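Here is one chain, start to finish.
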Amino acid sequence: MQALTNRYLGAAAFAAGWLATTPALATQAINAADDTHYSTKTPYRYIPTEFTPAPPGYRPTLVQFVGRHGSRHLSSAKYDKTLFELLSIAEERGQLTEAGRTLKQEIAQLIAVQEDVYGELSILGGEELHAIGERLAERFPEIFEKGRPIIAHATYKDRTPQSRDHFLSGLQSALGEATPPIDARQYAKGRDPYLRPYDLASRYRDYKSSGEWQAVIDAYLDQRSETDAFARDIIGQFIDDELFAELERGELALEDAKGRVALATPTDAANNLYQLYIISPNIEREGEFDFGRYFSEEQLAWYEDLDLMETFYAKGPSLTSSNLPREIAAPMVKELITSTDEALAQKSASGIFNFSHAELIMPLAAYLEIEGADESQDDPAQVSATWNGKAITAMAANIQWVLYQNDGGDDTLVKMLHNEREIAFPLPTEHYPYYDWESVKTYYADKVNQSGIALDNTLDDDIEALKNDF
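Its structure:
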C-alpha cells in the first residue's frame, strides 16, 4: 500500500493522580493559535508566563535543550514546481482559468523567493531562535556565571546549524562579555543516532512506509467523501474540466526536482496547494503569500486533520499496538541522562543544546510522556482531539531540562519546559514543577534499558542498536 501522502494527500506530499494539583498542562503547552490551519508548519509563538520560584537554597546550574529548527523555506522544489507545471500545461492548452493565471503568477513569485534557499532557515526562523536563546540567558543567567563551556549540537541539514547559530547569537546578545566558550558541533550524515535516529532505524523506515497504521487510515478515509470532493472544488478553480479529467484518469505525472512523481491526481494537486499555504507564514519576511484564500475554512481544517493524522501515526504516539515511532527517541534520552550526569559531576558545561527536526521532537515528547503528546489513538477521527501536533512540534518547538543544585551541591532538582512553559514529569513531586533528579534519571534510565539502549553505550553502539533493533 502506498503511503498516505501518495494515495490521499498527494504523491508529493498523564498519567493522572499526582497531576491533579498541577496546572492544566495541556492548555499551558499550547503556544499556537487555533484559528489557523498550518499543522506542524505553524511558526513558533511565545506566550509569556510566570515561572515558579525554586525551593529555597537552589540555583540553576545546567540546562539541557532539544529543539526543532526554526521556521524554514520549502524543503525542496516539489509542491511549487509541480503545481506551476500543471498550470503551465493548462495555459499552453488554453485550459487555464483567470484564477489559475493569478495562482500561476503567485507560485512564480514563490519560486523566485525559494531559489537557492530550499531547505534552509527563513528570516523568521532566525528571529525565532535568536529570541529563544536570548530569553533563556535572561531567565537563567546564573547558569552561565562560572564560565563553563556551552556545547551545541546540530544535524547535517543546513537549517539546524543555522538554527543553532541564531540561538547562540541570542545567548551572546543577552550575556555579552559573560558568554562562556562555545563548542559548536555537527553530526555527520549517517552518524547521528540522537538527533536523526530515524535515518538509521531500518525497521522504523519500513513501518513509516508500509506500517499497519496506513490500513487504519485507509479504512477511515474509505468512509469519507471529503478528499475527492474538496480536490474537485479547489483545483476546478484553476483548470478546465477536460484537464481535470486527465488528472482523474492518471494521465499526468509531474515530477519534483529529485525526479519523483509529486503530482499525478487532483488530490495531489490540492494537497500541494495546501502545502504552499502552510509554508507561507514561515516566509512572511521574504514575501506575502495568501494561498489560503483558495480554500474554505472547512477545507483547510480537513487538510490539516489529514496532515496531522499521517504525522501522528508515522512519527508520533501512533497506534496502541505499536511503540516503534516513540522508541527511536531512546538513544536521545540516554544521551540526555548521561551527558547531564557528566556535566554535573565534572562541572564541564553550563548548557548542552541540540538542534534537530520535528521527526525527533514528536517521538521524544511521547517517550518523555509529556501530557498531550504521548497518548496513542486507534481512531483516526480522534487524533486531532487528543494530540495537538501544531503545539507539540511547531517550528522551533523545544524541550528543556533545567537542573538546580543546592548550596552544598549535594542535591539536584530538575524541571522541564515545553516551549518555554513549565510542565510535569510523569512522576510525583512535592515541589511542582521541581523534581528530584535521581528519581527522574532512574525512571527514564529504566525505560531506556527496556528499549534496548544501555546507559554506557557509545555513539557506535547506539548506531548499531538503531540499525539492528529498531
